[in-house]
Amino acid sequence: MALPLALSGQDLIGQARTGTGKTYAFGIAMLQSIGKPRKNRKKPRGLVVVPTRELAVQVSEDLVTAAGKLGSRVLTVYGGRAYEPQIEALKAGVDVIVGTPGRLLDLVKQKHLDLGQVTSLVLDEADRMLDLGFLPDIERIFKLIPAERQTMLFSATMPGEIVALSRKYLNRPTHVRAEHESGEGEATPQVRQIVWRTHRMDKIEILGRLLQADGRGLTMVFCETKRACDMVAEQLDTRGFAVAAVHGDLGQGQREQALRAFRNGKIDVLVATDVAARGIDIDDVTHVVNYDCPTDDKTYVHRIGRTGRAGKTGISVTFVEWEELTRWKMINQMLGLDFADPEETYSTSPHVYAELNIPEGTKGVLPHAQRSRAGLSAERIEDLGETGRPRGRGGRRRDEREERPARTPRQRRRTRGGRELAETAPVETSEVELVDAKAEETPAIFSTDEIKAAATEPRRTRTRRGAATSAIEQALADAPEAPVKSTRTRKAADDDVAEAPVKRTRSRKAAAEAPDEGTHAGDVPAEDTRATDVPAEDTRPADVPAADTRPVNGSRSRRAAAKAAEPVMEESAPVVERQEAEPSFLSTPPPPVRKEPERIIPPSPFTVIFQSPDLATDDDDIAPSAASERKQQRRPSRGGGGGGGNRRRTG
Q: For 191-378, which CATH superfamily applies?
C-alpha cells in the first residue's frame, strides 16, 4: 500500500506490525528516486535517521541488499566508532546515509557532511524519534535539509500526539495503516502470550526452567534497567547457559559482538534493555521473556514483536510482580488482552511445565550434557576504533578473563656492611650461653698460668646478631698480655684462699697521720695498715670499723666485709700496686647512658623586644601634658575675674 505512494513522491506516515517489511517499503522507493550513482555526485541524496546503533546496522544491510543491481553507495554513521573511516567514505562520495542523530550532527559540525542536496528523508521508528529525547536533534536536522523534499515516517506504533507533531514537518502526508480496526497497537497474532504473577526472588528460577523447554530456539530476555541486565546475565552464566548482555553502558564492539554471536547461534540467550526492542530482526527467535513488566503498551508490542516475524510463530512470557499489577492492568486494557488477573505462579507450579512443555523434574541449572554452545568468547571482538573504553558492570566474563602470569621468585642476596658475601663463605651464627644459677661457679681469682693459657687458646665468645668471631680472635692476638679483671661471686668472696696482687689503699686516718707523701713501702707506720692477703676487691683498712664499709671496684657481701676486718697475718709481705685492667670483652657492657636533651627555655612573653633611644638631655625641659596646658590656659581668665565676665556680657 505504501510503495505506490512513496514512488510517486508523496509524504507518508506508515504504520504496520513489526516484521511486515517496513524497511523495504521506504528503502525501495528511496533508491528508485535517487537512481544510479554518478562519479561527480559525492553529496548524499537520501537520509535515514534511526534511534539506535543496532537498528542503523540492520537498515543499512537491508538497503545494501535492495541496491544490489543499482550499486548505490550506502554509508552507516553512528557513535562508538572511529571518525576516520566515516570521513574517508564521505570524501569518496555516498548516495544514502543511515545514521543516528548524534553522529550526524557531529559530522555536520566538523564540515565533513553536507545535507544540502538531500531529496528523501526517512524517520524509522518515528514515535521514538519525535519524543522529547530526540526532538531537538531532529529539528536541527530538518533545518539542514532543503524544504523541497520527500519525508516518510514509519513505525509499528504511532500515537496520536506523534501524528499531530509530524504534520509540522510533512507536506500533506498520507497516513497508511496496515492494522485491524480493533486497536492501534495490536500485538502480533502469531505470538502466543503468557502472563504470570511471580515473586521477584523466584523469577530467575522460573527463567532457568523455561530455557530448558522442548523446542526452544533463540531467546531474548528484556529487563528494565542496565543493572538488571547484568545481574540476570551473570546468574544465567553461572547456571550454565550461553548468554550475553546488550545495553547502553557497553561499548559498541561488545554490543555488536553479542548480536553477532546471537545471530550465529554461539549463544542462545540475549539479555537486553529496550535498546534491542526497536526493529532488531533476528531469525529463529522462538521465545521472548519480559523479565520486568513493560512500562507501557507500546514497549510491550515492540518487545514481543522480536518473535513471530515474517509469518513465523513464537511464545512470549511476561513476569508481573505484585507491585506491578496496576501497571499491567493498564497495558492489558489498552491492548484488549485477556490477562487482567494473571495467575499466581512459582517455579514448582505444575502449569509451568504443562504450558511451556518443560520435562518433569527439570531444575534451574542446565545439565553439563546439554552445554553445547560455544559461548560469547568464541565470537571475535571487532576493533572499531572506539572513542571510549569498553564499559560494563561485571567486567570481562569468566571465560574471557586471562590468567595472570606467575610471579617470578624474588632473588635475595646476603650482604654485610653493604658488601655481598661470598656464596661459599660459611654462615656465622650467634652463640648464646645460658647461665645456670645452680651450676658450679668459677673462682674469682686466676693464677698467672691460667691467664696466659686463656689468652693463647681460642675462646668461645658470645656475639650479638651474628658478629664475626674472626674479628674477636684477631683482637685477642693483637692485644698485649695483661692481668684480666675477673668477676667475683659470693662463694669466692667467702673462701679467699689464693693470693693475688692487691691495690694499695690507704684509710683516711692513715692518710692524715702520714709524715709525708713520699713514704716507701718498707717505712709505713703501724697506723697505715696495708692489707696484704686481703682479696683484690676487699680494700678496706683493718682499723676501720665494720659499719664503715666502702665498696671499691664492685659490690661486696657482709661476710666478706667481716673477713676483711680480721687482723693482718703477714705485714712483711711485699706490697704490690695493682693496676686496673681495661674492661674485658667477656664482661657485660654497661647500659648506655641516656643523655637528657638540652632544655630550651623559651623567652618570656614580657621581654622588651625594642626600646626607643632616649634623645632627651639634662638641659631639656619636660614637655607639659595636655591637661597641664589646659590648666595654664584657664588661669589668666580666673585672675581677671569680673572683667572677663563683663566683657562677655557687653559683647
A: P-loop containing nucleotide triphosphate hydrolases (3.40.50.300)
